[in-house]
Specification:
single chain, 581 residues, alpha/beta, 5-stranded mixed β-sheet, elongated, binds adenosine-5'-diphosphate
Length: 581
């Protein structure tokens, strides 16, 4: 361990007693030193274990890759007292290991320089990433595998261990010390354990990031699609108007007399133009609806007039087939608050489907008053729709049998549009069908239009829960449904307006820490939109310090997460109570 040296000023003889004394002192000191050494070692191991636990916690809780790596390098540096700690990740081509996290100001500068080392190069990192084995430069003054970095002038020893996923080497964890000869086998083993945990966490974070990016790309694509459809429909309508308009002018004889053959051909052009216009309008409608931009014009509507109009159009559609058209409508139908154009569209969509798919038999339109609503049905004796497909009929672009529709044409939008319009009127739409016998589509329209403020006080109160964590909205459902609330979950803030339109919620629960979006902005937007201006919004957030900002931005109340059942129910009950008074 060492030695004790005792000297005197001049030459002298040491007697036995003196020698024994020094030997005894040395013995005592040895024991004390050994104990101190063991204690230090134990402390160091305890710190390392603690660090390992912390790294493991960070690894399992942080999904953002940069945040994870930055946290881990700091943790390791502080727990082990290293001079410098960094993580390199190998690029996809396995060409170089790039610095991804690095401690302190030096680390920041190295990252800024995009510090990297070629895999297999003569450097600690180059060797680790090439061989997948730990590499130690015990004394950097002598070990030439260490490459001196002028930003790290005090490094005297370096140890790097590989980050491995299966047989793949995805990077290296690198630690540096200002003392030579400090890394023993046990240190390397501990570092390797940390690196193994870290490698798994990196893979998780990457997978998560990829998933998020994919979801984001899909969302962008979806928006682009909607925008594209809207633009295209618009662009297509302009030339179509000329085609329809001028063929009609010629057909009417305004440009001079035409032959019978010309009339026939022009009629075909005119009808095809009208058909195309119908399709384009459908696409335009659905994109507007999906973007939450469809507005209805409510007025007093005479249903009889609309019914006669659509029946006369339907007659034209079945004139070449042995299909009868029947109407069962009482003389005295009340006028209703509705958007006449859209009601006409709902009926036409149902009737033209019936006409399209029915080869023989009958199509029947009924209307009847049931309480506060008008219920209308369109039945046919067509092929019918298999039960398992009926659920999806009202989704955009869904078609039961594409070979059939290829024959008869169609985009799969008619029913989706009809459903949206019915729901925007505050009604419901459904289908009943038996294969081989026919189908009946029915819907209701409230006579008074969508109820005042969109609310019917007799129905279950509806809570729209907005949180990007499905687990949380699920929890709200579990809390609230037994209390008589119906809970609609929205996991993407962009769907809020659509959901509000469809479900007319009484209250919105809003998380303001929503992926990729500033929750406060969402809140402000909801406060500006006419549709949502009056709906109470309760912000549920972990960020208690945002309470004031939320209330200022228009939140009705603020509940700190984790949300307790009693608190949530109490808050909602009080809000509804206040609303009904
Ligand atoms: P489109 O008719 O343009 O394809 P719709 O949304 O109107 O789109 O209808 C979706 C699908 O529902 C149709 O493709 C068809 O398969 C089925 N369908 C709709 N109405 C009927 C009907 N009356 N009889 C049989 N199938 C129908």
């Amino acid at each position: 361990m060492g030695m004790v040296l005792v000297e005197d000023e001049g030459p002298r003889q040491w007697n036995e007693e003196e020698v024994e004394l020094v030997a005894a002192v040395a013995q005592e000191m040895t024991q004390a030193l050994e104990a101190a050494h063991l204690f230090a070692l134990e402390q160091r191991r305890a710190r390392q274990l603690e660090a390992a636990a912390q790294v493991s916690r960070a690894a399992s809780s942080l999904l953002d890759l940069d945040e994870l790596l930055n946290r881990v390098v700091e943790l390791i540096r502080d727990a082990f007292g290293f001079y410098h700690v960094q993580v390199f990740l190998v690029d996809e081509e396995n060409y170089a290991a790039w610095l991804r996290a690095s401690t302190g100001e030096t680390g920041r500068m190295l990252l800024e320089r995009q510090h990297h080392l070629i895999v297999g190069s003569h450097s600690v990192i180059g060797q680790v990433t090439a061989t997948g084995k730990p590499v130690v430069a015990r004394d950097t003054d002598q070990d030439h595998v260490h490459r001196r970095n002028e930003l790290l002038p005090d490094t005297r020893a370096e140890c790097a261990v590989p980050l491995r996923v299966g047989t793949r080497i995805i990077g290296a964890l690198d630690v540096q010390s200002t003392e030579p000869d400090v890394f023993d086998e046990e240190d390397i083993a501990v570092l390797q354990t940390l690196a193994d945990q870290l490698a798994v966490a990196i893979e998780n974070a990457r997978a998560y990031q990829q998933q998020r990016e994919t979801a984001e790309r899909l969302r962008e694509l979806d928006q682009l699609k909607t925008q594209f459809l809207a633009n295209m429909s618009h662009e297509l309508r302009t030339p179509l108007n000329s085609i329809i308009g001028f063929s009609r002018v010629i057909l009417k004889g305004i440009d001079g007399p035409i032959t019978e053959l010309q009339r026939k051909d022009l009629t075909t052009i005119y009808n095809a133009g009208q058909h195309l216009l119908g399709l384009i309008n459908d696409i335009l409608d659905i994109s507007k609806i999906e973007a939450g931009k469809m507005e209805l014009d409510f007025e007093d509507v005479d249903l009889n007039q609309i019914i006669d109009g659509v029946l006369s159009t339907t007659k034209g559609l079945i004139k070449d087939k042995p299909v009868r058209l029947r109407k069962e409508v009482p003389e005295e139908l009340p006028t209703i608050r509705a958007d006449a154009t859209r009601v006409r569209q709902i009926l036409l969509n149902l009737l033209s489907n019936a006409a399209k798919f029915t080869e023989e038999g009958e199509i029947c339109l009924t209307a009847v008053r049931t309480g506060d609503e008008i219920m209308m049905t369109v039945s046919d004796t067509g092929p019918g729709i298999p039960e398992e497909k009926q659920d999806r009929l009202f989704e955009a672009f869904y078609q039961v049998d594409s070979s059939m529709t290829r024959k008869v044409g169609g985009t799969g939008l008619g029913l989706a549009i009809a459903r949206h319009f019915v729901e925007m009127h505050g009604g419901r739409i459904w289908v009943r069908s038996v294969v081989g016998q026919g189908s009946t589509f029915g819907f209701t329209l409230p006579i008074a239009g969508p109820l005042e403020n969109g609310k019917d006080i007799h129905r279950q109160p509806v809570v729209l829960a907005v949180d990007d964590e499905p687990g949380i909205t699920e929890l709200y459902t579990r809390y609230l449904e037994p209390e008589g609330y119906s809970v609609i979950s929205v996991n993407d803030a962009r769907d809020v307006l659509l959901a509000v339109r469809r479900y007319q919620p009484d209250v919105i629960l809003l998380d303001i820490k929503i992926r990729d979006m500033n929750g406060l902005d969402v809140l402000r937007t909801l406060r500006q939109e006419e549709l949502t201006r009056e709906i109470p919004i309760v912000v549920c957030s972990i960020e208690e310090d945002q309470r004031e900002a939320c209330l200022k931005a228009g939140a009705t109340d603020f509940l700190p997460k984790p949300i307790l059942r009693g608190e949530l129910v109490g808050c909602l009950n009080a809000l509804l109570q206040a609303q009904r008074m």
